[in-house]
Design a protein that fits this description.
Radius of gyration: 16 Å
Structural class: alpha+beta
Order of helices and strands: HEHEEHEEHHEE
Strand order of the largest sheet: 2-4-5-7-6
Strand content: 15-25%
Number of strands: 7
CATH topology: Heat Shock Protein 90
Low-confidence stretches: none
Distance between the termini: 45 Å
Largest sheet: 5 strands, mixed
Shape: globular
Number of helices: 5
CATH class: Alpha Beta
Length: about 180
């Protein structure tokens, strides 16, 4: 029964993610009109994700002065932070959420101290259903659509996303949002 319940949960997650993926750019609700500060957005996201014990979450003071629409940035940051937690190779880690007002655009970044993504796979991770390690799909509970959703949302709002290795190791996902879209 537990095996069946687990498979049902994974199927529900897959269906929810497929629906989200198909709706990107077509639906707009009141969350798209709501303007909040970046630090409040980060606090809300962390409360929704409720990181496991052992993870340290750091929110950059630079987020406090940024005023953004709740969506689509909430979806992007939730997926990036969720992935940093889900795919971390240790039971404890540090994840930083950063933001900066760069005049014509905002820079947002999620940096972790996990295993990172090999350079050869960085473009492919944005493809629907791509999994870096398919053998871990059951343990992580993902649908393989998280980063595809992030990329599609970014594209729909004129934003750019890039993945780099942090100097200390781990991954840094950076999203550059045009001021008009954020």
């Amino acid at each position: 029964m537990n095996l069946l319940r687990g498979r049902i949960r994974r199927m529900e997650k897959l269906l929810d993610d497929l629906l989200d993926y198909s709706r990107i750019g077509r639906t707009v609700d009141e969350r798209y009109a709501e303007v909040i500060t970046g630090d409040v957005l980060a606090e809300n996201i962390l409360a929704l994700l409720s990181p496991p014990e052992g993870f340290t979450m750091k929110v950059s003071p630079g987020l406090a002065g940024i005023h953004v629409r709740r969506m689509p940035l909430q979806q992007i940051l939730m997926n990036l932070i969720g992935n940093a937690i889900k795919h971390h190779d240790k039971k404890a880690g540090c994840i930083e959420v950063m933001g900066a007002d760069c005049g014509a655009h905002y820079d947002f970044a999620v940096k972790d101290d996990g295993p990172g993504i090999p350079e050869h796979a960085r473009a492919a991770v944005f493809d629907p259903f791509f999994r870096l390690d398919p053998s871990r799909s059951r343990s992580t509970g993902g649908s393989g659509l998280g980063l595809a959703i992030v990329k599609q949302i970014a594209d729909a709002h004129g934003a750019r996303i890039s993945l780099t290795t942090s100097p200390e190791g781990g991954l840094r996902a950076t999203v550059v949002f045009p001021l008009a879209s954020a």
